[in-house]
Amino acid sequence: MSEERQRLFCFGYGYTADYLGHALQNEEQGWTIGGTTRDEERQRDLLSRRIRARIFDDEHPIVDPETLFNRFTHLLISVPPNADGDVIFNQYAEEISKLKNLKWIGYLSSTGVYGDREGGSVDENSETRPSSARGSKRYLAEKQWLSLHQKFGLPVHIFRLAGIYGPGRSALDSVRAGIARRIDKPGHKFNRMQVEDIVQVLRASFANPNPGAIYNLADDCPASSTDVITYACTLLKQPLPPIVSYDEANLAPITLSFYNDNKHVRNDKIKTDLGVKLKYPDYKSGLEACLAAEQYAAQENEKDVLKTAS
Q1: CA separation for the pair 125, 279 (Å, rounded)
Q2: Which stretches does DSSP call E strand in the chain?
Q3: Residues 115, 131: contact at Cβ < 8 Å?
Q4: CATH no. of 6-164+193-219+264-279
Q5: Hey, where are the domains in the chain?
Q6: What pTM value is reported for the model?
Q7: Which of the residues 1, 153, 275, 285 has an alpha carbon 20 to 30 A from that of 183?
Q8: Kindly report the CA angle at 99 between 96 and 101, in degrees rounded to 5?
């Protein structure tokens, strides 16, 4: 293996990390990709795709973490925090602080650290004042990772993600499943970002590292959930579900917490500092791309079935 080869390890090889890994493997020079999962079936699937997957959870810690981490040049943390902050930091900060090969560390946080702004806008210089337990945990985890930059000069970057959606994980899926709801809360808007644009931002940061930097990841068009569901129904030629008043919706606690925050997350910094031009600046273009990708995947799967049958 060439010493110049780039090597990425992802704690929490989930939806976003998988899109990132796929994009990096398709680069001309290629990357070595590794990561963790809790599920043995998922591990087998990742290994079949040349992802060096390891089982990791409370009962399966990383054996000899310093040796493992030293094999990689880039480290992405994409696991949810707990009451004590980030679980990876709390277990492996000492080993990570000693690494010499790391060119980049990224922590995937949440725009929930800003709390509720009653529809006002926030950027990376805005005060962090989380209004939910989930946001408070994310903010604690951010501070933990940034401490490694402050104390040891490690190349830590924080990415505050809005709602993530993409093929197989969008309003299209809830409409198809018959569980979509149009909830009316006047003046309330959600921020979101299509997964391909999240990957674009992370790769731009790889190319232009700025240790200690914080970036907001959201598209240009915060919108109500009702507008998004309506457009998903239009694309799928499905009837619109009835509009339900927010006060009568009887939302689950986790969903209710999302509706408690209302803000416009500004994304100027990823454009000015990283040169990012969003592929999907609004939910309409993003959903259209999701539908096209899903239709293409279905066609390819049908071809494979026919080939196997013949």
Answers
A1: 25
A2: 6-11, 31-37, 51-55, 74-77, 104-110, 121-122, 156-161, 163-165, 182-184, 192-194, 214-217, 243-245, 264-265
A3: yes
A4: 3.40.50.720
A5: 6-164+193-219+264-279
A6: 0.95
A7: 285
A8: 130
